[in-house]
Specification:
The protein is built from 15 helices and 18 strands. With about 450 residues, it is an alpha/beta fold. Strands 10-13-14-9-8-15-16 form a seven-stranded mixed β-sheet, sandwiched between helices. Strands 5-4-3-6-7-17 form a six-stranded mixed β-sheet, with helices on both faces. α6 links the parallel β4 and β5. The longest helix is centred in the N-terminal third of the chain and has 26 residues. The radius of gyration is 23 Å and the shape is globular. The N and C termini lie far apart (about 50 Å). About 50% of the residues are buried.
Length: about 450
């Protein structure tokens, strides 16, 4: 695809950026279906044509191996673009609504239609710095908006490459990238946007929401949470351990949807821990620091926070760490007190806490006594257990037998509840997030 040779607008103020994008939106250029399809194809071409450079940037930031980076950051994003391209025309069709007979007669009609919002802001975290940058932009452009994208300054290499590519592939009057840190983000949040989409932690989420409130700007907050895993006595512990290791330790545990802690009765916990040790060795070898498949902590600040949490229990698996290499081994902590530091914050790293509870009743009570998580996971063959967990706990999503399957199914909405966020996206839900569902009624004059 021929790239766009756009003017470099990086010297602009935040107000000038938003004003310029609003002027573009007000021309109506973003509304036609053909324009939206063209923007999505540009996104797709950016990923396909620059795959290797993006993979290398992800390695420099997070030591993501090529297979993981390609699958989770590039291919999954291309899949989301392809879904939008295949379905966008149908998604945008007006939906007729039945009109009661006593209102206007049979000639009166009503329907809903998706209206673009205007200028939207997308603020991106560092842990999946490419996928979480591009994925919201898919829906924002598909909905017919102009976009300000603020990539993470912490994932410096991916931010630099992705920002440069977005400037090359897109007209800056349609999509503008603003790089920088707190100062730049603060300046952006002072502007009036038509929607703000933020992925990150609850502390910054509150700042975003407070800033948005000054302009009555709607927000989507994709936050984290301590995602519990209930392992029932009827679970196959070896298979459970294998799947837990895969769901927990990818990207060195730096994923908002990663299992955070395990709830199990004492006998199940005792059987699970050696199975987890065997599963870690099967996936990363006996020396994970030398494994090409195990990532690194993003920076020293996060490394220091995580190593302090290691004192919250006994390292039954792992526990080794090397600050110079930003390495923390895949770790399983036992004898974890529910009041310990590791149980007071989202771990967001390669440490899995095991907390013993008496039974399912106690597990449900434990979950409900805490903030609502982004996900609840369980390993069980009992449909009754699954039903109770679905109906008696509150979370952004649930998955039985394979974390984070609720994220991977394209037709499912993804989002949190309470402390884990508000709003949802993926597929058609992203289009809905960045659109206004407008009601239209037509009563003939004769």
């Amino acid at each position: 695809m021929t790239t766009t040779q756009a003017i470099d607008h990086r010297s602009e103020t935040a107000a000038e950026v938003v004003g310029r994008l609003r002027a573009t939106f007000n021309t109506g250029v973003t509304r036609p279906l053909d324009w939206r399809v063209d923007q999505l194809r540009r996104l797709r071409a950016l990923l396909v044509e620059n795959e290797q450079e993006l993979i290398e940037a992800l390695w420099k930031d997070l030591r993501k191996n090529a297979a993981e980076a390609k699958a989770h950051e590039i291919d999954s994003t291309i899949g989301d673009i392809d879904e939008a391209l295949a379905n966008l025309e149908n998604w945008l069709q007006p939906r007729p609504v039945e009109v009661p007979a006593h209102f206007g007669g049979p000639a009166t009609t009503a329907y809903t239609t998706y209206d673009p919002l205007g200028v939207v802001l997308v603020i991106v975290p560092w842990n999946a710095p490419l996928h979480l940058l591009i994925d919201p932009i898919i829906g924002a452009l598909a909905a017919g908006n102009t976009v300000v994208a603020k990539p993470s300054e912490i994932a410096v290499h991916t931010s630099a490459v992705a920002s440069r590519l977005l400037r090359e592939y897109f007209d800056a009057d349609v999509l503008t990238v603003v790089e920088g840190g707190v100062e730049e983000t603060t300046a952006l949040l002072a502007q009036r946007f038509d929607h703000i989409f933020y992925t990150g932690n609850g502390t910054v989420g509150r700042i975003v929401m407070a800033a948005a409130a000054k302009h009555l700007t709607p927000v989507t907050l994709e936050l984290g949470g301590k995602n519990p895993v209930f392992v029932a006595p009827d679970a196959d512990v070896d298979e459970t351990a294998k799947r837990l290791v895969g769901g927990k330790f990818g990207n060195a545990g730096q994923m908002c949807i990663a299992p955070d802690y395990v709830l199990a009765d004492p006998a199940t916990a005792a059987a699970l821990v050696p199975a987890l040790r065997a599963a870690v060795e099967a996936q990363f070898g006996t020396t994970p620091q030398t494994s090409p498949d195990f990532g690194r902590i993003i920076n020293e600040r996060h490394f220091d926070r995580l190593t302090r949490l290691l004192d919250s229990g006994q390292a039954a698996v792992g526990g080794q760490h090397d600050r110079d290499d930003l390495f923390i081994a895949p770790t399983v902590l036992t004898d974890v007190d529910p009041a310990s530091p590791i149980m007071q914050e989202e771990i967001f790293g390669p440490i899995l806490a095991v907390v013993e509870v008496e039974d399912l009743d106690a597990a449900i009570a434990f979950i409900n006594e805490r903030d609502k998580p982004l996900a609840v996971y369980a390993f069980t063959t009992s449909e009754a257990t699954k039903s109770r967990l679905v109906n008696e706990t509150s979370s952004g999503g649930v998955a039985w037998g394979q974390p984070p399957m609720q994220l991977l199914v394209p037709g499912l909405p993804f989002g949190g509840v309470g402390e884990s966020g508000m709003g949802r996206y993926h597929g058609r839900y992203t289009l809905e997030t960045f659109s206004h569902l407008k009601a239209v009624a037509d009563v003939p004059l004769s």
